[in-house]
Amino acid sequence: MNISVPPFGSSLRPRGEVAEGVSYAIPGRSESIDLPLGNTERLVVSAKERKAFREIVSQLDVGTIISYPKACGLQQHLAERFNIGPEQVLVTAGADEALERAIGCVLEPGRELITTSPTFEMIPVYARLTGGAVHQIPWLEGSFPAGEILDAVTERTTVISVVTPANPTGASIALADLQRIARAAAQALVVVDLAYVEFADVDITPDLLVEPNILIVRSLSKAWGMPGVRVGYALGRAEVINWMSRTSGPYSVSGPSLAIAQARLQHGGENVRNYVRTVRAERQHLIELIDELGGIPMPSQANFVLTRFENVAAVSDHLAGCGIGTRRFPANPDLQNFLRITCPGDEKAFQRLTGALKAVRKT
Looking at the whole model, is its pTM more than 0.90? Predict the structure, then answer.
């Protein structure tokens, strides 16, 4: 008997939020680019660091592969590191998952998230997928718009989500502004993404942890140099952490990833501190050089510098011709004349970058 099967998709449709959404555009890499400074991960790894990673991987127990993963060891380590209880920690598959869970556990149709523009592009995506509304407050330059954010708060406001140091600008938010927002909008969950905080002059994590409605999101992908491991975490009130734990399955982070992350945190601190010192010095040098070249660098507390160039395409193309990748934002009208350049954290790579930038003047 022949059964007529309608073609897939003839009646099946995604829900509206998915149909209207856009997939995250993972940056491609040209074969001619061997120093990709458009992304914000740690691309140049010293021989000492490579050896440390190899030792960590070589000591992995087979149990991390053949057994279901248990995050309690890493959870306890993070709790001790920040002097909080383990019930205030949630280990996630990257900071992205922590953001998605935080937003998803409280936002729904009829409720609203407030964030800035520009911001990490997945924040409004995660919000819209819940059916909630998104209200973005412009913040490209100048002081953080704490007053404008508070003016936008209504009884529908359930989440206020900010990134500091900000992505993609590198700007930082003063602790006093975050405290002001959290206390004035006590009915909202204030999600503070600190993915780049290791590069900042001050780590405000301890001060934020005392605010009952602030949830902190942190990452091991940036300063700790492990984006491929996909480990992030959330710190906050135990009740909120419990809500977040209900929004996904129990094994989102693999056993090997958990073991690598814990070993790295326990033994890699000195190497990370040295790397951060190098990046901070490069960042200052890069800002000064860009200013000399006629560009307008944005103040940055991250591991990158966002710069406005009159001839942004020419600068980007010149650097690409030197094998150096950078990040442009052609789809964002506010950022079309901007270029984001990541500090490599390596003397040889940084000399190559600065040499290529100086050559722009001669072209």
Answer: yes
